[in-house]
UniProtKB/TrEMBL annotation:
Gene Ontology terms for molecular function: L-serine ammonia-lyase activity
InterPro entries: Ser_deHydtase-like_asu, UPF0597
Protein's UniProt keywords contain Cell wall biogenesis/degradation: no
Start and end residues of each Serine dehydratase-like alpha subunit domain: 103-434
Family note: Belongs to the UPF0597 family.
Keywords: Lyase
UniProt-recorded name of the protein: UPF0597 protein M3N64_05670
Keyword Lyase tagged: yes
């Protein structure tokens, strides 16, 4: 049993007019956006829908060129509102036939029942080709659509909604200036200001009116899809298995809540989620365990909102060094974030929260990302458990120390080590994962019924 303790006095230095305060607010607004469906197939659908919009008519053919990480994350996940189809071809067809590009990551949210049959018909009756992108970019989607002599290409790079280039018949209609650059934060607020001490300062200083909308929406949306995951039959039903096999204590409920949200989302549930670092699984992992602990502790709404925002920012901070997509499972970062948020709910100060993060990182770093699919929910459960256990360890005067593997002195230094491991050290791991995943069919695009 963990003994609650009062937090030490915080040195609240940040003011609403400070640049860092404004940057942190903007980072939350940029990251905490709604998405319907797994974000990689949705990005494909968005590119295809935008290309069709610019073309002005239903195209006779479509070619999707995608980076390996996009192929990996789209191959095995159900695209929402497609009657259970999977793969890049299904996502592109859905975007072309019935997508609304103006809704970006909710591009497929308003598809009518009558449109779903048309998606399969389009795949059957039109040329829809998927090819690996001819570049080394981690995040790259190019949708090229044709009708007669007209041809339109839309390119998305670096993150899910970043349209870098639009051409028509070889003529540039739009170019963001980011094309080909490796800095995936282009167009977003500079994340170099993130560090654990300033994050905690911001969390204590932030006015509720400044975060209530974005955090409130995250809580509402993600709670709703988690409830759906526990109610009906989705994916591998990891959330239900946890509650059935492991009991109903708060630690199990926290794991089950996050896993159930992933169960539903990977299974094609049409409810939206609020994402973090481009991922709905990370958005749910960062928020749902914290919400469950807040209920258990009868925390105030103010405390809950600050704890969720803390978890979000800790997740974003870790993912900044790792990148949007990699061989490193993003749920690990979000599980560490959840552990930090839970420690905060218990009154943890800087030392408690910093050690919680380091302990959690030491436990689960190295879990691979082999694409979006039902097993993501099980990885989420493990990551949340590590975050919670990282806090339990420190409360029992135990911690991992400098020199224990990738752990080094200082929480920020350890986070930077993880970024280097994931972004640089695991590049070849990522290539091998993609090669293994595509070995069976040899095709990056699949349109199949689940």
């Amino acid at each position: 049993m963990i003994e609650k303790h009062a937090a030490e006095e915080w040195d609240i230095l940040m003011q609403p007019d400070d640049k860092v305060y404004k940057n942190y607010l903007q980072i939350l607004k940029e990251e905490l956006v709604p998405a319907t469906g797994c974000t990689e197939p949705i990005a494909v659908a968005y590119a295809a829908a935008k290309a069709r919009e610019v073309l002005g008519t239903l195209p006779e053919s479509c070619v999707i060129a995608a980076s390996g990480n996009i192929i990996k994350n789209v191959k095995s996940v159900i695209v929402p509102n497609t009657n259970g189809m999977k793969g890049i071809a299904a996502a592109a067809a859905a975007g072309i036939v019935a997508g609304d590009a103006s809704q970006k990551l909710e591009v497929l949210s308003d598809i009518r029942e009558a449109d779903k049959a048309q998606i399969q018909s389009y795949i059957n009756e039109h040329e829809l080709i998927v090819v690996p992108a001819d570049n080394d970019m981690v995040f790259y989607i190019a949708a090229t659509v044709k009708y007669g002599n007209e041809e339109v290409t839309v390119v998305i790079e670096h993150f899910h909604t970043n349209i870098a280039l639009i051409t028509r018949n070889g003529i540039k209609l739009y170019e963001s200036g980011a094309s080909g650059k490796v800095n995936e934060s282009h167009g977003l607020t500079d994340r170099s200001c993130l560090n654990i001490r300033d994050i905690l300062d911001f969390i204590q200083s932030v006015r509720m009116e400044d975060i209530s909308e974005v955090i409130g929406r995250q809580i509402d949306y993600n709670t709703a899809i988690s409830a759906e995951g526990l109610k009906d039959n989705w994916g591998a039903n990891i959330g239900k298995v946890l509650l059935s096999a492991c009991g109903n204590d708060v630690r199990t409920r926290a794991r089950a809540a996050a896993a159930a949200g992933s169960d539903a989302r990977m299974g094609g549930c049409e409810k939206p989620v609020v994402i973090v670092s481009g991922s709905g699984n990370q958005g749910m992992t960062a928020s749902l365990p914290v919400i469950e602990y807040a209920k258990e502790l009868h925390a105030s709404q103010d405390k809950l909102y600050r704890a969720v925002a803390l978890s979000d920012l800790v997740t974003i901070y870790q993912k900044t060094g790792i990148g949007r997509l990699s061989a490193y499972c993003g749920a690990v970062s979000a599980g560490c974030g959840a552990g930090a948020g839970i420690a905060y709910l218990y009154g943890g100060d800087y030392d408690v929260i910093a050690h919680t993060i380091v302990n959690a990182v030491a436990i689960t770093s190295g879990i691979i990302c082999d694409g979006a699919k039902p097993s993501c929910a099980a990885k989420i459960s493990a990551a949340v458990d590590a975050g919670i256990f990282g806090y339990y360890m420190y409360e029992h005067n135990q911690q991992f120390l400098d020199g224990d593997g990738i752990v080094t002195k200082g929480v920020d230094n350890t986070i930077h080590n993880v970024g280097a491991l994931a972004q640089k050290g695991m590049r070849q791991t990522d290539r091998e994962i993609i090669r293994i995943m595509l070995r069976k069919t040899g095709k990056p695009g699949i349109a199949a019924k689940d």
